[in-house]
Amino acid sequence: MKLNESIAVSTANVLLVPYDRRHVPTYHAWMEDPAIQEATASERLTLDEEYENQESWRASHDKLTFIVCQPLAPVATAAATTAIVAGSADAPDSMVGDVNLFVYPYEDDDDGGAESGEKAVAASEPSYVVGEVDIMIAELRNRGRGVGRAAVLAFLHYVSRSLERILHEFGCDSGDAVEAKQQQQRTPRLKMLMAKINEGNAKSIALFRSLGFEQEGQVNYFGELKLVLQDLDKAISAIAPEGYVELSYARETQETLATP
């Protein structure tokens, strides 16, 4: 999504920055690990293909991505009250993983037998979408330290604050002019957030449950559990990330950044 291309999110425990071209070599190195490929259901790509992916993710209307980095030092936090300079706090040795939101239309399993008249009424009403959240902490040395939970918590807080704009960008992107106009007239609504997690990944399951996600159904054909969060605002109000602040992600030199 273009929404977060110039936004960084800082908390006491983590820094999130938009996935930029400068991050691709490190991201590509992570994805060379067969274990990460399996855990993320990803295919091995060349570096050039990874650069193409980064560009397509930025332009995509249905995928919101941040790179997870180590938190800013207290001194840096005080100095960066308005902006993060690209390539400083998100240098390769500060990068930890990524966190994503995939947005897609909600499909009600119970409406398969709806009559045409009922479908026409439904088409005139606001549509619903699902937001699927996933988190990857790439290196073993950064796992088990609470970084993943801090990243998801900060990410959910950003999604909650930006939800209207996220849904607007998703709803207004269509190749069909008529459909795009119809979508603008009925901005979609968020039905739920969801995470699909391998049943053997006990730590990830515990992470999402600690943030209010609850299991729905049984393990699917792919060995995954589906965890859902129905009330994002309620969950966020109950667990606010410490020191949350949104900063400008500046792709200029430090000298050009003037604090108002």
TrEMBL record:
For whether the record's keyword set contains Transferase, the answer is: yes
Q: Name one GO molecular function term.
A: N-acetyltransferase activity
Judging by the UniProt lineage, the source's domain of life is Eukaryota
Against Gene3D superfamilies, the record matches this protein to: 3.40.630.30
Q: Where in this chain does the record put each N-acetyltransferase domain? A: 14-214
- Which keywords, in A-to-Z order, does the entry hold? Acyltransferase, Transferase
Q: Which InterPro entries match?
A: Acyl_CoA_acyltransferase, GNAT_dom, NAT9-like
Regarding protein family, the annotation reads: Belongs to the acetyltransferase family. GNAT subfamily.
Q: What is this protein called?
A: GNAT domain-containing protein
State the organism named in the record. Answer: Lasiosphaeria ovina
Taxon lineage: Eukaryota, Fungi, Dikarya, Ascomycota, Pezizomycotina
